[in-house]
Amino acid sequence: MAEPVGLIVGSGAGVLELQIEARSPTKTPYGMPSSPVLRAVIADRSVLCIMRHGENHSIPPHQVNYRANVWALHMHGVRLCLAINAVGVIGSTGFEPGGLAVPDQLIDYTWGRADTFHDGGEGGVVHTEFTEPFDTVLRGRLAAVAGDRVAAPGRGVYGVVQGPRLETAAEIDRLARDGCTMVGMTAMPEAVLAREAGVAYAICAVGVNHAAGRGPTGAGLHAQVAQHLAAGLGKARVVLEALLAEL
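^ thats the sequence. predicted structure below, dont judge the formating
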């Protein structure tokens, strides 16, 4: 039997049209996850899914219980996890709103989030190696499929901001100077917690809008998101189906 694959889905989860077969409420040492662990079917392949913002999309990014989400999947045997993250596009050749990218690096600008399973005490001090924040093998396979199926860039730097407010144009300029090509609110501490739990983790980033000050004038954020979210998640579905067939 194939090892279970995990899927963490953020904004616009309904667009993926996941067929839910079972719900498993799961209590962890870190509290309850954002949703039950959902057994879903994509292209005849079962995956174990967490809705990052809750099934009713009611949990803002700074209040997501990332530790419980990752731990719940780990408790259910997940050792490979794909994440779908909505992002704003700062600047990357080939990556536009409505498209996908597979980031290979991130910069963490968040604060105050419970970002480790290693809180000292009897477990001692643990320094997690994080030079490459995404699993190189899984990320490489995801990038290859995304590049082949929807011409998605296989690299990018994800700037993780606190939210839930959006950024100023000056803040986006700063992120661009730092090397960020996309901005979102949920890759951290999700990525490092997966590393600590021994879960191979990679992100399929869905561009849903131009970051502040980067897009055409007069195009409001909500109008952009409404325009681009469905198109981007439709491409993500294509990529997921193809990748799951290989795993």
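The longest strand covers residues 200-210.
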